[in-house]
Design brief:
With 197 residues, the protein is an alpha/beta fold. Helices cover 45% and strands 18% of the residues. It is elongated.
Length: 197
């Protein structure tokens, strides 16, 4: 009786192991089929390739800053955020590390509007001192920002290289990838690549 139960137990273990292996294989297949998600472009008031009007703004530190235009071949990232946006707050460490990693070619500006004391508290809470931070409702309207967090990447020639709603590190980094490949979005790049195959 004990031998029979041991044999049945081993058969159950072998069957379970085979099922786990089959499920792991299916997860791998699904992972390969799912394309990486890029930043979601919404209503597109501004399109990739457009040359936005240059805007002179003042940072919270009192520095004059020009948004748009040519910047000695350097790209400019506008990251629209708010102290009331929980997703924005969770992405600020990602923003900081991405900007640091891409500092050889990228200048970044945090943009918000509303209550200045709340913005300053967010700067202190998230260690953003020294990072250009602009309060400008006009800047958000100029780029058609309706939802946050939103980012716009302007290339060194002053053209919009990529833009979109960024809810994750993957979304933010997809803006850099889209610029590198000369496409509007990561989805467009994948569509082009599928067409070549």
């Amino acid at each position: 009786m004990i031998i029979t139960s041991q044999i049945l137990l081993w058969i159950a273990v072998v069957v379970l192991a085979a099922l786990v292996a089959a499920l792991a294989r299916q997860v791998g297949i699904l992972h390969e089929r799912i394309a990486p998600a890029g930043a979601l472009t919404l209503h597109q008031q501004v399109n990739v390739g457009d040359i936005p009007t240059q805007m002179d703004v003042t940072t919270l530190d009192g520095q004059q800053l020009t948004v748009g235009g040519k910047h000695n071949g350097r790209s400019q990232l506008l990251f629209f955020t708010s102290p009331d946006c929980p997703v924005c707050k969770s992405l600020l460490p990602v923003f900081k590390s991405s900007v640091h990693a891409e500092r050889s070619w990228l200048d970044a500006v945090l943009v918000s509007d509303g209550d200045e004391p709340a913005q300053r508290r967010m700067i202190m809470e998230h260690g953003l001192a020294g990072q250009p931070f602009v309060l400008s409702e006009a800047l958000g309207r100029a780029f058609g920002v309706a939802k946050l967090p939103y980012a716009v990447l302007i290339d060194g020639e002053g053209k919009v290289a990529s833009l979109g709603l960024v809810n994750t590190r993957e979304h933010l980094e997809s803006l850099f990838e889209a610029k590198e490949h000369g496409v509007a979005s990561l989805q467009e790049f994948l569509k082009r690549r599928e067409g070549e195959v």
